[in-house]
Design a protein that fits this description.
NagB/RpiA_transferase-like; ribose-5-phosphate isomerase activity; binds ribose-5-phosphate; four-stranded antiparallel β-sheet; Alpha-Beta Plaits; Rossmann fold; six-stranded mixed β-sheet; single chain; alpha/beta; 6 helices
Protein backbone atom coordinates (compact mmCIF):
# COMPACT_ATOMS: atom_id res chain seq x y z
CA UNK A 1 0.00 0.00 0.00
CA UNK A 2 1.38 3.43 -0.87
CA UNK A 3 1.96 6.17 1.71
CA UNK A 4 -1.17 8.20 0.92
CA UNK A 5 -3.45 5.16 1.12
CA UNK A 6 -1.82 4.15 4.40
CA UNK A 7 -2.85 7.55 5.83
CA UNK A 8 -6.39 7.25 4.50
CA UNK A 9 -6.75 3.74 5.92
CA UNK A 10 -5.40 4.72 9.34
CA UNK A 11 -7.89 7.63 9.62
CA UNK A 12 -10.76 5.40 8.45
CA UNK A 13 -10.02 2.62 10.94
CA UNK A 14 -9.71 5.07 13.81
CA UNK A 15 -13.04 6.82 13.13
CA UNK A 16 -14.88 3.52 12.83
CA UNK A 17 -13.35 2.16 16.04
CA UNK A 18 -14.03 5.38 17.93
CA UNK A 19 -17.53 6.37 16.77
CA UNK A 20 -19.39 3.42 15.23
CA UNK A 21 -21.61 1.53 17.69
CA UNK A 22 -24.42 -0.99 17.35
CA UNK A 23 -27.96 0.18 16.45
CA UNK A 24 -26.73 3.27 14.63
CA UNK A 25 -27.94 4.74 11.36
CA UNK A 26 -24.79 5.75 9.51
CA UNK A 27 -24.23 8.10 6.58
CA UNK A 28 -21.65 6.69 4.19
CA UNK A 29 -19.67 9.29 2.23
CA UNK A 30 -18.01 9.03 -1.17
CA UNK A 31 -14.49 8.91 -2.54
CA UNK A 32 -11.41 6.78 -1.97
CA UNK A 33 -10.98 7.24 1.80
CA UNK A 34 -14.48 6.07 2.67
CA UNK A 35 -13.73 2.71 1.02
CA UNK A 36 -11.39 1.86 3.91
CA UNK A 37 -14.07 2.88 6.43
CA UNK A 38 -16.71 0.67 4.82
CA UNK A 39 -14.27 -2.27 4.76
CA UNK A 40 -13.64 -1.85 8.48
CA UNK A 41 -17.35 -1.38 9.27
CA UNK A 42 -18.05 -4.66 7.44
CA UNK A 43 -15.29 -6.41 9.44
CA UNK A 44 -16.79 -5.17 12.71
CA UNK A 45 -20.32 -6.17 11.67
CA UNK A 46 -19.01 -9.70 11.06
CA UNK A 47 -16.83 -9.99 14.14
CA UNK A 48 -18.99 -8.10 16.67
CA UNK A 49 -22.50 -8.55 15.22
CA UNK A 50 -23.10 -4.78 15.09
CA UNK A 51 -26.56 -3.85 13.84
CA UNK A 52 -26.22 -0.87 11.48
CA UNK A 53 -28.20 0.80 8.74
CA UNK A 54 -26.13 2.61 6.13
CA UNK A 55 -27.44 5.56 4.13
CA UNK A 56 -25.38 6.29 0.97
CA UNK A 57 -24.34 9.71 -0.35
CA UNK A 58 -23.75 8.63 -3.95
CA UNK A 59 -24.09 5.77 -6.42
CA UNK A 60 -20.54 4.71 -5.41
CA UNK A 61 -21.46 4.63 -1.71
CA UNK A 62 -24.59 2.59 -2.45
CA UNK A 63 -22.48 0.04 -4.37
CA UNK A 64 -19.95 -0.10 -1.52
CA UNK A 65 -22.69 -0.78 1.04
CA UNK A 66 -24.20 -3.54 -1.10
CA UNK A 67 -20.84 -5.13 -2.02
CA UNK A 68 -19.95 -5.39 1.68
CA UNK A 69 -23.27 -6.95 2.63
CA UNK A 70 -24.28 -4.01 4.83
CA UNK A 71 -27.90 -2.97 5.40
CA UNK A 72 -28.91 -0.25 2.96
CA UNK A 73 -31.15 2.59 4.17
CA UNK A 74 -32.42 5.84 2.71
CA UNK A 75 -33.53 9.25 3.94
CA UNK A 76 -37.22 8.42 3.39
CA UNK A 77 -37.04 5.72 6.03
CA UNK A 78 -34.19 7.20 8.08
CA UNK A 79 -34.31 11.01 7.94
CA UNK A 80 -32.30 11.23 11.15
CA UNK A 81 -28.85 9.67 11.30
CA UNK A 82 -26.59 9.08 14.28
CA UNK A 83 -23.35 9.67 12.44
CA UNK A 84 -22.11 10.52 8.93
CA UNK A 85 -18.53 9.75 7.89
CA UNK A 86 -16.98 11.21 4.76
CA UNK A 87 -13.69 12.17 3.14
CA UNK A 88 -12.69 15.70 2.13
CA UNK A 89 -10.43 17.41 -0.39
CA UNK A 90 -9.27 20.01 2.12
CA UNK A 91 -10.03 20.81 5.78
CA UNK A 92 -9.19 24.17 7.36
CA UNK A 93 -8.37 25.02 10.98
CA UNK A 94 -12.10 25.40 11.83
CA UNK A 95 -12.94 22.11 10.06
CA UNK A 96 -14.56 23.88 7.13
CA UNK A 97 -14.14 21.57 4.16
CA UNK A 98 -13.91 21.60 0.40
CA UNK A 99 -15.61 18.51 -1.02
CA UNK A 100 -16.70 17.33 -4.44
CA UNK A 101 -13.30 16.60 -6.00
CA UNK A 102 -14.73 13.20 -6.94
CA UNK A 103 -17.94 14.69 -8.29
CA UNK A 104 -20.14 14.08 -5.24
CA UNK A 105 -21.27 16.88 -2.96
CA UNK A 106 -25.02 17.59 -2.96
CA UNK A 107 -26.16 14.24 -1.56
CA UNK A 108 -23.18 14.22 0.81
CA UNK A 109 -24.22 17.58 2.25
CA UNK A 110 -27.86 16.54 2.68
CA UNK A 111 -26.89 13.31 4.45
CA UNK A 112 -24.33 15.08 6.68
CA UNK A 113 -26.95 17.70 7.60
CA UNK A 114 -29.28 14.92 8.78
CA UNK A 115 -26.67 13.39 11.10
CA UNK A 116 -26.19 14.22 14.76
CA UNK A 117 -22.46 14.07 14.13
CA UNK A 118 -20.44 14.51 10.93
CA UNK A 119 -16.86 13.19 11.03
CA UNK A 120 -14.27 13.81 8.32
CA UNK A 121 -11.47 11.40 7.45
CA UNK A 122 -8.47 12.18 5.28
CA UNK A 123 -4.76 11.66 4.79
CA UNK A 124 -2.72 14.46 6.26
CA UNK A 125 -2.13 16.19 2.88
CA UNK A 126 -5.69 17.52 3.22
CA UNK A 127 -5.00 19.32 6.48
CA UNK A 128 -4.68 23.09 5.90
CA UNK A 129 -4.81 26.25 7.96
CA UNK A 130 -7.02 27.92 5.32
CA UNK A 131 -8.93 26.70 2.28
CA UNK A 132 -6.90 26.86 -0.92
CA UNK A 133 -3.59 26.30 0.87
CA UNK A 134 -3.12 22.72 -0.36
CA UNK A 135 -6.10 22.15 -2.65
CA UNK A 136 -5.60 24.01 -5.93
CA UNK A 137 -8.44 22.63 -8.06
CA UNK A 138 -10.99 25.12 -6.78
CA UNK A 139 -14.38 24.82 -5.15
CA UNK A 140 -16.74 22.38 -6.85
CA UNK A 141 -20.21 23.80 -7.48
CA UNK A 142 -23.07 21.64 -8.77
CA UNK A 143 -25.28 23.49 -11.27
CA UNK A 144 -28.34 22.80 -13.39
CA UNK A 145 -26.92 22.02 -16.86
CA UNK A 146 -28.80 24.75 -18.72
CA UNK A 147 -27.60 27.41 -16.27
CA UNK A 148 -23.86 26.74 -16.26
CA UNK A 149 -22.80 29.75 -18.38
CA UNK A 150 -24.75 32.45 -16.47
CA UNK A 151 -23.67 30.93 -13.14
CA UNK A 152 -19.99 30.96 -14.25
CA UNK A 153 -20.33 34.58 -15.39
CA UNK A 154 -21.95 35.68 -12.11
CA UNK A 155 -19.24 33.99 -10.05
CA UNK A 156 -16.45 35.56 -12.11
CA UNK A 157 -18.01 39.03 -11.99
CA UNK A 158 -18.73 38.93 -8.26
CA UNK A 159 -15.69 37.13 -6.85
CA UNK A 160 -13.06 37.02 -9.62
CA UNK A 161 -10.97 33.92 -10.12
CA UNK A 162 -11.68 31.29 -12.76
CA UNK A 163 -14.78 29.12 -12.80
CA UNK A 164 -14.59 26.22 -15.29
CA UNK A 165 -16.94 23.49 -16.40
CA UNK A 166 -15.52 20.13 -15.26
CA UNK A 167 -14.90 17.88 -18.25
CA UNK A 168 -15.09 14.09 -18.13
CA UNK A 169 -11.96 11.94 -18.57
CA UNK A 170 -13.39 8.84 -20.27
CA UNK A 171 -16.38 10.44 -21.96
CA UNK A 172 -16.69 13.31 -24.40
CA UNK A 173 -18.19 16.37 -22.75
CA UNK A 174 -18.82 17.41 -19.17
CA UNK A 175 -18.95 15.38 -15.97
CA UNK A 176 -22.59 14.59 -15.13
CA UNK A 177 -23.28 14.16 -11.42
CA UNK A 178 -25.37 11.42 -9.80
CA UNK A 179 -28.18 13.99 -9.85
CA UNK A 180 -27.89 14.65 -13.60
CA UNK A 181 -26.23 18.04 -13.15
CA UNK A 182 -22.94 19.68 -14.22
CA UNK A 183 -20.02 20.74 -12.03
CA UNK A 184 -18.07 23.96 -12.02
CA UNK A 185 -14.69 24.23 -10.35
CA UNK A 186 -14.15 27.78 -9.15
CA UNK A 187 -10.45 28.60 -8.73
CA UNK A 188 -10.35 31.47 -6.26
CA UNK A 189 -7.59 33.74 -4.99
CA UNK A 190 -6.21 31.70 -2.09
CA UNK A 191 -4.18 34.65 -0.78
CA UNK A 192 -7.34 36.59 0.02
CA UNK A 193 -9.17 36.16 3.36
CA UNK A 194 -12.63 34.82 2.53
CA UNK A 195 -15.71 34.63 4.72
CA UNK A 196 -16.63 31.12 3.60
CA UNK A 197 -19.92 31.06 5.45
CA UNK A 198 -21.05 34.14 3.55
CA UNK A 199 -19.65 32.98 0.21
CA UNK A 200 -21.35 29.62 0.56
CA UNK A 201 -24.68 31.32 1.32
CA UNK A 202 -24.29 33.74 -1.58
CA UNK A 203 -23.27 31.04 -4.07
CA UNK A 204 -26.29 28.97 -3.06
CA UNK A 205 -28.54 31.96 -3.79
CA UNK A 206 -27.45 32.16 -7.45
CA UNK A 207 -30.34 30.69 -9.46
CA UNK A 208 -29.16 27.46 -11.06
CA UNK A 209 -26.74 26.52 -8.28
CA UNK A 210 -27.76 23.21 -6.70
CA UNK A 211 -25.13 23.27 -3.95
CA UNK A 212 -21.47 23.96 -3.32
CA UNK A 213 -18.61 21.80 -2.10
CA UNK A 214 -18.13 24.15 0.85
CA UNK A 215 -19.08 22.32 4.06
CA UNK A 216 -19.06 25.13 6.61
CA UNK A 217 -19.33 24.47 10.36
CA UNK A 218 -20.61 20.97 9.69
CA UNK A 219 -17.85 18.64 10.88
CA UNK A 220 -17.51 18.03 14.61
CA UNK A 221 -14.21 16.16 14.30
CA UNK A 222 -11.53 15.50 11.68
CA UNK A 223 -9.19 12.50 11.57
CA UNK A 224 -5.94 12.87 9.63
CA UNK A 225 -3.85 9.77 8.94
CA UNK A 226 -0.13 9.80 8.20
CA UNK A 227 1.85 7.49 5.94
CA UNK A 228 3.32 5.89 9.09
CA UNK A 229 -0.18 4.94 10.25
CA UNK A 230 -0.55 7.43 13.09
CA UNK A 231 -3.72 9.54 13.31
CA UNK A 232 -4.24 13.04 14.69
CA UNK A 233 -7.70 14.36 15.43
CA UNK A 234 -9.02 17.88 15.63
CA UNK A 235 -12.27 19.47 16.76
CA UNK A 236 -13.25 23.07 15.95
CA UNK A 237 -13.40 23.96 19.64
CA UNK A 238 -9.99 22.59 20.49
CA UNK A 239 -8.31 23.90 17.37
CA UNK A 240 -5.35 21.81 18.34
CA UNK A 241 -4.22 18.24 17.96
CA UNK A 242 -4.71 15.28 20.30
O1 LIG B 1 -16.62 14.10 -4.53
C1 LIG B 1 -16.13 13.42 -3.72
C2 LIG B 1 -16.24 13.57 -2.25
O2 LIG B 1 -16.58 14.84 -1.79
C3 LIG B 1 -15.02 13.01 -1.55
O3 LIG B 1 -15.40 12.77 -0.23
C4 LIG B 1 -13.80 13.93 -1.56
O4 LIG B 1 -13.49 14.29 -2.88
C5 LIG B 1 -12.59 13.24 -0.93
O5 LIG B 1 -12.27 12.13 -1.67
P1 LIG B 1 -11.05 11.16 -1.34
O6 LIG B 1 -11.43 10.40 -0.12
O7 LIG B 1 -10.94 10.28 -2.55
O8 LIG B 1 -9.87 12.03 -1.12
Amino acid sequence: MDAVNAGKKAAAIRVVDELVKTDQVLGIGSGSTIVFAVEHIAERVKSEGLKLTCVPTSFQARQLILEHGLTLGDLENFPKLDLAIDGADEVDSELNCIKGGGGCLAQEKVVASCAKKFAVIADDRKDSSHLGQNWHKGIPIEVLPFAYVPVMQKIKTTYGGVPALRMAQSKAGPVVTDNGNFLLDWKFDAEKKWDWNLINTELNLIPGVVDTGLFIHMAFKAYFGTSQGSVSTRTPASNGFH
